[in-house]
């Protein structure tokens, strides 16, 4: 059997990791995750770790689901792969498109398949411009996005995203993208009433459209709740105002549902939770609970009709668009979510329980704010909460807290100095208790380390 040290050495020799400082990684050695069951991971040293992040916001039905394993095995035996180019399709692809149309808001009945969330947003980037060109308005090209947004890591995804360090490497964003502020009340609007703040940042969209000219703006894209940006939950006033502005100026509203989709908020989509009517929705992650890579763009009827009647080809697509095995797994995943009433259970039982328990951490000396919505949570750490003073080096504190937490048997992720959580949607109440217990112990340990 290969030892952990041998695996780490080979990994260091041959594997370039995503979003990783390899000098730093070489010092510590990578953690080798070996197997998983339910909401627990096991590493190569035999440590059992509660996965408070559902992998990377995706393993919504938990690990080890036989239904998904069987769906993949059966489909691979029948037809592992075929493409959807050249006037072809496969039965699992059709079935998944049907199911998604049923689950999506009533005005959405088409899907364009991709292999990931980034590819979904790249598709959106090209599709909104092609759409307006088909409508005879080719000058409607600019896409408005938000600071600190995350829309993936491809050229268009990183460009639409608002992560400064990503832009600095390689001259991003590409042209044609404008940006407004995020609805991050705790960090950027603390002196204001939250609802007044929500309205004010939403109205930045209107000001931006007027500055550019509505005849030049194609779309506005945002995550219903900003995930990788630190679980930024907008005030109640925010989304209705954004919807109003998009309607008035005929701007396509794009919801990046890659995290919020498939039950995370206690509704099927974040857009359902906030009562908005997007023209396009990016999906991935929870679509297959991460068992196989698959994503897509849900397309409103009026856009699909425009494409279909344009008399033109949309020159876009991927080898793995509508991959039959990935589609079969995604369908089986949706069936589990429906049959087990998981989305309703998140809404009625788990979200209130998670909110109640996690908010108990707000009394901790290091915790400035705890916010939750559905099964998304954020614990915002502060240097001195009585003065609303943040740490100078937020990233270092967040990383230290993450490492302590993993050592204590809980995966939390640090975004700056905000610890974020997104557990599998099948987590049990006693597992939520364990999660909060380990989070508190990690905060206590962090306080000791910071004082030393
Ligand atoms: C993860 C994520 C993406 C990118 O998805 P990939 O599958 O990693 O390409 C896009 N948007 C949001 C909101 C995400 O969280």
Structure description:
With 452 residues, the protein is an alpha/beta fold. The chain has two domains: 145 residues, Aspartate Aminotransferase, domain 1 (Alpha-Beta Complex); 273 residues, 3-Layer(aba) Sandwich (Aspartate Aminotransferase, domain 2). It has 17 helices and 15 strands. The strands form three sheets. It has a seven-stranded mixed beta sheet with strand order 4-10-9-8-7-5-6, sandwiched between helices. Strands 1-2-3-13 form a four-stranded mixed beta sheet. Strand 14 and strand 15 form a beta hairpin. The longest helix is centred in the last third of the chain and has 23 residues. It starts with a helix and ends with a helix. The structure holds pyridoxal-5'-phosphate (PLP). Pyridoxal-5'-phosphate binds next to helix 6.
Keywords:
alpha/beta; Aspartate Aminotransferase, domain 1; globular; binds pyridoxal-5'-phosphate; 17 helices; seven-stranded mixed β-sheet; 452 residues; four-stranded mixed β-sheet; Aspartate Aminotransferase, domain 2
CATH superfamily of the largest domain: Type I PLP-dependent aspartate aminotransferase-like (Major domain)
The figure for the number of domains is 2
Residue stretches low in confidence (pLDDT < 50, at least 5 long) are: none
The major β-sheet equals: 7 strands, mixed
Strand order, biggest sheet? 4-10-9-8-7-5-6
- Kindly state the number of beta strands: 15
The 3D shape can be described as globular
CATH class of the largest domain: Alpha Beta
Q: Say which molecules are bound, naming each kind only once.
A: pyridoxal-5'-phosphate
**Roughly how many Å is the radius of gyration?**
22 Å
Instruction: Quickly give the CATH architecture of the largest domain.
Output: 3-Layer(aba) Sandwich
Taken as a percent bin, the fraction of beta residues is 15-25%
Report helical residue fraction.
40-55%
Distance between the termini: 40 Å
């Amino acid at each position: 059997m290969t030892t952990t040290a041998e695996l780490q050495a080979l990994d260091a020799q041959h594997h370039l990791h995503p979003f990783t400082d390899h000098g730093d990684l070489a010092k510590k050695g990578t953690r080798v995750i070996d197997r998983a069951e339910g909401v627990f991971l096991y590493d190569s040293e035999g440590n059992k770790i509660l996965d408070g992040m559902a992998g990377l916001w995706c393993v919504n039905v938990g690990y080890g689901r036989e239904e998904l394993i069987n769906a993949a095995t059966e489909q691979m035996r029948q037809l592992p792969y075929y493409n959807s180019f050249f006037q072809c399709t496969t039965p699992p692809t059709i079935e998944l498109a049907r199911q998604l149309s049923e689950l999506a808001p009533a005005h959405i009945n088409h899907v364009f398949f991709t292999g990931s969330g980034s590819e979904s947003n790249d598709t959106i980037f090209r599709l909104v411009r092609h759409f307006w060109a088909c409508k005879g308005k080719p000058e409607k090209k600019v896409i408005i996005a938000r600071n600190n947004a995350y829309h993936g890591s491809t050229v268009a995804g990183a460009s639409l995203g608002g992560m400064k360090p990503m832009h600095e490497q390689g001259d991003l964003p590409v042209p044609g993208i404008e940006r407004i502020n995020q609805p991050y009340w705790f960090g950027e609007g603390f002196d204001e009433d939250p609802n007044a703040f929500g309205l004010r940042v939403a109205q930045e969209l209107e000001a931006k459209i007027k500055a550019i000219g509505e005849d030049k703006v194609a779309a506005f894209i945002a995550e219903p709740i900003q995930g990788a940006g630190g679980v930024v939950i907008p005030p109640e006033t925010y989304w209705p105002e954004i919807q109003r502005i998009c309607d008035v100026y005929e701007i396509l509203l794009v919801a990046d549902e890659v995290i919020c989709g498939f039950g995370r908020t206690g509704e099927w989509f974040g857009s359902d939770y906030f009562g908005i009517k997007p023209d396009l929705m990016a999906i991935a992650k929870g679509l297959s609970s991460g068992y196989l890579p698959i994503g897509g763009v849900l397309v409103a009827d009026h856009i699909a009709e425009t494409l279909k009647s344009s008399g033109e080809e949309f020159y876009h697509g991927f080898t793995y668009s509508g991959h039959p095995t990935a589609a079969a797994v995604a369908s089986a995943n949706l069936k589990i979510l429906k049959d087990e009433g998981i989305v309703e259970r998140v809404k009625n039982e788990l979200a209130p329980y998670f909110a109640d328990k996690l908010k108990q951490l707000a009394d901790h000396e290091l915790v400035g704010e705890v916010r939750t919505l559905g099964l998304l949570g954020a614990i915002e750490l502060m240097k001195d909460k009585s003065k609303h003073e943040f740490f100078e080096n937020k990233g270092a504190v967040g990383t230290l807290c993450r490492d302590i937490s993993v050592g204590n048997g809980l995966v939390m992720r640090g975004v700056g100095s905000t610890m974020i959580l997104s557990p599998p949607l099948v987590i049990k109440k006693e597992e939520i208790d364990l999660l909060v217990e380990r989070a508190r112990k990690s905060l206590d340990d962090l306080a000791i380390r910071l004082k030393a």
